[in-house]
Amino acid sequence: MGGPVETFINALAKYSWRTVFGIFVATGIILLFPRQLDVVNWARSNHGYIVIAFILSGAIELTHLLTTIHTLLRKRSERRVDLRMVPGSSIHSTWSVSVEPLSKKPMMILICRMNFAHYESFSLIIKNAYLRGTRATFPLADIVVEGSCDDSTSLCIGVLPIKAKPGKELVGRLVFVDQFNDRHATERITFRPNTLSADWFAARLQTSPNCAFCDKPVTLEEQAQEAQMTAHISCIWR
Predict the structure, then answer these.
(1) At what angle do helices 17-32 and 47-79 cross, to 10 degrees?
(2) Residues with pLDDT less than 50, the chain
């Protein structure tokens, strides 16, 4: 059987992956449905050759698929910009709650400073940003990273859903999307709740007593301390 097998392998090497894929499919169908194809006797007498053709063509197709995936990943890795991101002081990293512009629902606001740098000969443009596990709620003004000596950037990012809990720190990674639609994730950043004083809310409730979401009166005890407007705790964290 060595002669026919060697001939078959040499023939496979001369054809494209499409031809090999056709052989893989055809031999698989013959092995599975010889009776329906009315080739029982032929399939039985050539069973060894058909199995070998099926295995070899399948192995060649698998190798081609893995090689293609590896090539694509390597090209993407070579094209991807190595963006370095260093968060500023945690003192300036805070979260709070505001109103989503379109749906008028609660959204989370993240504020921090970030240092961007890269070694490329062209500018990288940050087009979008969000906290991992959320989505951005409003467009981010383009951030142009010229190179390795840019000044730190102040960020204000609106996201949904609200991942933070009342009075608790929020730890997560910010994800920045560049003009090539590549994503760059930061190290884990700790955001502190940006709470306002009870005196500030007491004065605010005198002029804006109703919740921004349900339009019902809010008492000082019901007021969400991280909200930038009059709002029930229960309307934000349902």
Answers:
(1) 140
(2) 1
Query: Out of 1.20.120, 1.20.140, 2.60.40, 1.10.10, which CATH number does the structure's domain 84-194 have?
Result: 2.60.40
Count CA atoms within 13 Å of residue 160 on its CB side: 13
> Which residue stretches of 33-46 are H helix?
40-45
DSSP letter for each residue of 160-204:
ES----TT--EEE-EEEEETT--EEE---EEEEE-PPPHHHHHHH
pLDDT given for residue 128 in this prediction? 96
Distance of CA 77 to the CA centre of its chain: 16
pLDDT given at position 35: 85
Q: Give the distance, in angstroms, between the CA of residue 182 and the centroid of all CA atoms in the same chain.
A: 10
Q: What's the sign of the alpha-carbon dihedral 102, 104, 106, 108?
A: positive
Which of 40, 41, 170 is CA-nearest to residue 93? 170
**Residues in Cβ contact with 220 at an 8 Å cutoff, skipping those fewer than 6 apart:** 198, 201, 202, 205
- Please report, for the chain, the start and end positions of each structural domain, with discontinuous segments joined by +: 2-79, 84-194, 195-238
